[in-house]
């Protein structure tokens, strides 16, 4: 009994001595793998570049946890989340024309309506409801009256949210939903980086499709509206960049908003920008504890 008492006292002294010399070693638990989210901006025909980004991520087996989109980015995001491959998305984008998603219907609030978009989406997508998607999906539209972003996610069919998110003011008539008039999601948030994070992403990659510069004055009404978009979107740029860990910017400035005939060039631009980002993304997968602020500028990308 006496020997046991001495041993217990010695163990207790050793314990307190260890505390004086520093904390006990922590258990070595591996860090959880990152959940990568993609946030896809708008750009009308330039949205084809998103498919080039997705193709590279698929080629390098980059796992995508969630995806969010506005305007053209909402079509690509929904198609990919539904199970469509980047190749299928790129083929549909390159073959698409305005008449595939819109029909002329002159009215006080726009020139075309987007009911045809449902048939186009039904051919492209594999699933049609948020809760059925293979990966988590979010779509942003804008309330025309309040100017607030309207988020669609988790449940319900995707057709109306995408139509609303793509309702380019002045061209498409607004979409009515729950007593609201909804228009292009990029009106309130150019890139839905925060939504991608709210869907559960730990690392958010935003894909920004820049429009042509404003050096030359607009020559038609669509260029006027497009230039107004650019001016407006500079007001939200700081917000979505703050919610991004990496921003990929395909070089699509030379291509017009309706340049569907430039599909191959748009795909190559998306691929080139994504390839330059692959080493950084692979670094996240190898070391999940890498955080925002450690990122460096990459060709074709802009650090958040």
What can you see in these coordinates?
This protein has 304 residues and is an alpha/beta fold. The chain has eleven helices and eleven strands. The protein has helices spanning 2-21, 48-59, 72-82, 86-95, 98-101, 116-124, 159-165, 193-198, 221-233, 237-242, 263-286; strands at 36-40, 66-70, 103-107, 110-113, 136-143, 149-153, 175-177, 180-183, 203-207, 246-248, 301-302. Strands 1, 2, 5, 6, 7, 8, 9, 10 and 11 form a nine-stranded mixed beta sheet that branches. The protein is globular. The termini are far apart.
Main β-sheet description: 9 strands, mixed
Q: Helix fraction?
A: 40-55%
The pLDDT mean sits at 82
The dominant shape is: globular
From N to C, what is the helix and strand string? Answer: HEHEHHHEEHEEHEEHEHHEHE
Low-confidence stretches: 292-304
Count the beta strands.
Answer: 11
Q: N-to-C terminal Cα separation, in Å?
A: 67 Å
Distinct helical segment count: 11
> Measured on Cα atoms, how large is the radius of gyration?
24 Å
Given helix and strand content, the structural type is alpha/beta
Q: Report the portion of residues in β strands.
A: 15-25%
